[in-house]
């Protein structure tokens, strides 16, 4: 049932009035334009109030049916609910409080701009600090990694530990030692036969 209410509200509370608002703007009919503007103001107030009433009154019997009936009443050309509510309640209230509302909006705009600038500067400072720290840690980690590789290579070449010596180095060392011995004996043999 809740989904049906949402569907009804979407179609008849939002899309239908939006299309007729478009037609009013396109035809430049001031009477229709004013009628749909009054509807949108009332609908915006209804949507705002609905956010809170859904939390506290959703348990109330026929609550969702009443919401459907209210939207239908607002739209009906016979009841002219949105025009009635606007002219009887909203317009007089907003007219009497307009200066205070405008002052509050200007203050809120200024405060939000100041807060945005303040938090923007802080965010940029935090991001810059994080980038510098990451870069410095990254360079340190890279140099440590290279240093560990070079120290391992040096220990391998020195032959500090036999377990870390790669087989290719051992083979080269043994092949170099074994090659000169036969050539010395061969040279000695040829030298003795020449005498």
From TrEMBL:
UniProt lists compositionally biased (Low complexity) regions at 161-187
GO biological process terms, semicolon-separated: endoplasmic reticulum tubular network organization
To which protein family does this belong? Belongs to the DP1 family.
One Pfam family in the UniProt entry: TB2_DP1_HVA22
For this UniProt record, give its keywords in alphabetical order, as a comma-separated list: Membrane, Transmembrane, Transmembrane helix
- This protein's species is Jacana jacana (Wattled jacana)
Q: Where in the cell is it found?
A: Membrane
A single GO molecular function, which one?
A: olfactory receptor binding
Q: What is this protein called?
A: Receptor expression-enhancing protein
- Name the predominant localization: membrane
What GO CC annotations are associated with the protein?
A: cytoplasmic microtubule; endoplasmic reticulum membrane; endoplasmic reticulum tubular network
Q: Where are the transmembrane segments?
A: 6-25, 37-62
Membrane-topology annotation of the record: Multi-pass membrane protein
Q: Which parts of the sequence are annotated with region: Disordered?
A: 156-195
């Amino acid at each position: 049932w809740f989904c049906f209410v949402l569907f009804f509200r979407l179609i008849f509370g939002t899309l239908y009035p939006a299309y007729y608002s478009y037609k009013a703007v396109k035809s430049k009919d001031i009477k229709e334009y004013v009628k749909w503007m009054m509807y949108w103001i009332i609908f915006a107030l209804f949507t705002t109030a609905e956010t809170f009433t859904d939390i506290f009154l959703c348990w109330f019997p026929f609550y969702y049916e009443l919401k459907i009936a209210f939207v239908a009443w607002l739209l009906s050309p016979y009841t002219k609910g949105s025009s009635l509510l606007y002219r009887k309640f909203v317009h007089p209230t907003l007219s009497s409080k307009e200066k205070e509302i405008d002052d509050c909006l200007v203050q809120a705009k200024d405060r939000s701009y100041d807060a945005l600038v303040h938090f923007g500067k802080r965010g940029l400072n935090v991001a810059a600090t994080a980038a510098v720290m990451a870069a410095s840690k990254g360079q340190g980690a890279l140099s440590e990694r290279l240093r560990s590789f070079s120290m391992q290579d040096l220990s391998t070449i020195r032959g500090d530990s036999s377990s870390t010596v790669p087989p290719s180095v051992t083979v080269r060392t043994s092949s170099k030692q074994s090659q000169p011995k036969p050539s010395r004996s061969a040279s000695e043999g040829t030298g003795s036969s020449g005498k």
